[in-house]
Amino acid sequence: MKLQINKNYFAFSVVLLIAEVLIAVYLKTGFIRHTFGDYLVVILLFCLIKSFTNTNSFVIAIGVLCFSFLIEFLQLVNIIQLLNFQNNHLIKIILGTTFQITDLVAYTVGIITIIIFEYKIYKLWIT
């Protein structure tokens, strides 16, 4: 498999990463911080993977959703405390600290958005 960069997905990944960092730094509460950020993070992960691989979009989307669910369920078992990372602010931001069903919903809606978008784009390209 040859590694090649898809500039469109990579550029979108960078924009989403900047948005996520701004949300994390400047918003401490509210819908954008707690739900919209989770919606965006699955799109960011999808675009980052698509930046470097030409794998089927549906497979990547489902993989990202499974990974996101895994991280969320690790929060349920308090993985931060189990790994003794209570004092590591960066790890706490990346992994999160509290399990919430709404996060699972946000991840799922983000993946549905990706699948719809990819399907529409694919349909536009073949017609």
Automatic annotation (TrEMBL):
The keyword Membrane applies. It comes from the Bacteria. Keywords: Membrane, Transmembrane, Transmembrane helix. The keyword Acetylation does not apply. The chain crosses the membrane at residues 6-27, 36-52, 58-83, 104-122. It holds the Pfam family DUF2809. This is DUF2809 domain-containing protein. It comes from Algibacter aquimarinus.
